[in-house]
Amino acid sequence: MEKVGWRASSVSPRREVDRRNRVTVTEMGLVEKAEVGRKRAEFRRRSCYHRFLYSSGGEAAKQQAELEEEDGFAMGSEGSAAVVVPRNFRLLEELERGEKGIGDGTVSYGMDDADDIYMRSWTGTIIGPPNTVHEGRIYQLKLFCDTDYPDRPPTVRFQTRINMTCVHQETGMVEPSLFPMLGNWQREHTMQDILISLKKEMSAPQNRRLHQPHDGNWCVH
């Protein structure tokens, strides 16, 4: 029997078209493949993070790895991975970003104690912006990321004396009620965002011409 028109009327299942959504089966397969790749990448990140914690030693580190396995990488009701990044892994990403450098180098930060597995204490540096009273000055800050970071903002304190409307003049603490980045904190904000925002605040009309104290540090411990 001659198979006339067989090739013309037969369509490979991989090329069938969903007429309602106008999406081919092949395209749907690509979406599924991308999702699998995303989950594999997340698994590799999680494994790397937990290897870091376990290699740091100590029962506390192991317990934290187990807790953040449950809290940060819990699976949703439909099997989708939660998007909340565990605290220590988030800080590892920030550490790597800080080591690579930020923009033109007028803002930088790094971790104080490489042996602190909870990565709590950090030092930031801001070079004062041009055309302000802060031009040419180098300001050092201390940022402390407690165990609830990044759900709650770090505490930020200028070590170098500075006169700014959002900085307490006796302690050097940045006041959250006067600094929107801290007062309206969101989990996706980072230490880099804080430093960049403080540098912009130096150029704000209320700060750019303020009389500045002599160079020196606050005597706060």
From TrEMBL:
Domain UBC core: 86-221
InterPro entries per record: UBC, UBQ-conjugating_enzyme/RWD
Subunit note: Heterodimer with UBC35 or UBC36.
Name of protein: UBC core domain-containing protein
